[in-house]
Amino acid sequence: MGIAATQPLTRNMTKIGSSITQRKVQHAGKQALSKAVVAAENEAVSNLSATAARQRFGQLLSRSGAAGTDGNLSLAERAARRKQMQHERQQANLERIMSLAEEYCSVQLPQQDIEPDWFNQYCELVLDISNASMQQLWAKILAGELAAPGRFALKTLLTLKQMSVREAVALQHAAALSCRLRSEQAARIYFGYSRKPSLWHWLTGRQLALLNLSQFQLSYPQILSLIDIGILHSSEIESGELQNGQRVHWQIQQQVLNGSVKQAGVVLQYYKYTPTGAELLPLIQCQPQQHYISALQKMLAPVVQFEAI
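Below the sequence we write its predicted structure tokens.
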């Protein structure tokens, strides 16, 4: 091949190489531009987050009565302002709970008045209750005490004061699973049973059946928290042995389960409410968990014959 023939091929290769280089430069430029745009967006989001954080912190400063935007006030003036703001918040909480309690009160109240010391302690305890759900609970306590003076012990008030919103939710979940024997006032949370082996099945040992309460929104950590604040007793409890043919009547909210025991030696397992928990339980509004009721009947079916509802 001559020199004249190779010159066009060389020019073509030069053009191709130049085109590839241009595309690489363009691609690199696009990547750099994309990175710059992403960096700018991230910076904008970061600035927005920083602004939102400063605004939130400024709100906390204002609520605390600290310097904030009023840096011209002296330390003594800021302390006085903080006290005034605190007193106003507490008064607002107290008045809100009193207003709710009036709505819960029955039209007719007994002639007996509530204990003055109890009421004074109550007023002190509700001053810092600002959560709406907890305010309703405290209002129901006052309405209940007005309807039946002496119904709620001071110990119950102190327990409720220590209760967080999360623990109040746990109590509501527990209330939805609470059963009450018709012959007793104390509510219980049944979760299992055991039975002694019969003469013909003595090799099988003690038979046991359990429900996992976490399936019904009551987790074990929630149970522990209710034990810790004195709502539930600290240990699982077993009933006495049920007799063959013994009638049982459970009430779960408005639903009643009636049945008879199929064999002797059956022992029910449950969590029991403390006196404090028993006082608070009627204040909790909840719907019974039908899934739990069905599971409880299914678990007890080998030892209890339930009547059709």
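Residues 3-64 form the longest helix (62 residues).
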